Every structure is written in C-alpha cells, then in structure tokens.
Amino acid sequence: MIQPTLDSLRTFLHILAVCVWLGGQIVLAGVVPKLRKTNPDALSDIAKGFAAIAWPAMILIVFTGAWGLAEIDTADQSSAYMVTFGIKMLLVGTAIIATLIHSTGTSKIAKGLGGAIGLLATLFAAYCGVLLAHVG
Q1: What's this model's pTM, rounded to 2 decimal places?
Q2: Which residues 6+ apart lie within 8 Å of 115 measured at CB?
C-alpha cells in the first residue's frame, strides 16, 4: 500500500468537502423544483439541513485550501498557474457570496440567481482546481 501522508490527508479532506458542497447543490437543483410542486413546506427544513452540512464543508474547503497554498512556494509557480489560482479564488468568493444571497434572500430573483451563480461558480472553481492539480 502507498504510504499515506499529511499532504494526501489534506487533499482528501479538500476533495471530500468540495464533493459535499458541490454535490449537495447539484442534488438540490434536481430535487427542489419537484418539491416546490409536491411538498413546498418541506423546502425550509431541507435547506436548513443542507446548510448544516454544507457550510462546515465550505469552512473545511477554505482551511485545507489555505493549508495547501502554504505548502507551495508561489514564487516557483508559473504566471499561468498563478492566474488560474487567482481565478479559482475569485470563483470561490463568488460562490460564497452568491450562496449567501440565495440563502438569505427573500425574493425569487435573489433565490434563483444566487443559487444558479453559486452553483456555476463552484463548478468552475472545481475545474480550476483540477487544472492546478495537473500542473502542480
């Protein structure tokens, strides 16, 4: 068996937390429209349940991401790597802000745009993470 390392544990936790955050959003995008028609009273409880899992996952994403950044020498990275990293951070920030707007908003437009932008920003941030992993 390959010997586990602290780096592999950090990477695993980062990916696990991204799976929770992103996967939950994708599941909710499929479930919520159907529930809105059949059982709208359940939406609030489902949202609260997801938030109780998703926000700690986002904290873990940020923590393990910062930990990973501390492990590399950014001066040794190419400008393409750093631009991709900057785009990823912009997307993560956008995802967090959009999700906050979605979860605290009261209008349909805040809910809809916040959710859609949050999901898209998270998807693109995850892809940037893949790009960075293949270069770094």
Answers
A1: 0.91
A2: 25, 29, 98, 99, 102
Closest-CA residue to 102 (of 90, 117, 88):
117
Ramachandran bin of 78, using left for φ above 0, alpha for ψ from -120 to 50, beta for the remaining angles: beta
Q: Which two tokens stand for residue 90?
A: 């912009």
The predicted-structure confidence for 67-98, as pLDDT tens digits, reads as follows 999 999 999 999 999 999 999 999 999 999 99
The secondary structure of the chain, three-state, reads CCCCCHHHHHHHHHHHHHHHHHHHHHHHHHHHHHHHHHCCCHHHHHHHHHHHHHHHHHHHHHHHHHHHHHCCCHHHCCHHHHHHHHHHHHHHHHHHHHHHHHHHCCCHHHHHHHHHHHHHHHHHHHHHHHHHHHHC
Mean pLDDT, residues 26-53: 94
CB within 8 A of 87, min separation 6: which ones? 128
Here the tokens at position 22 are: 């992103």
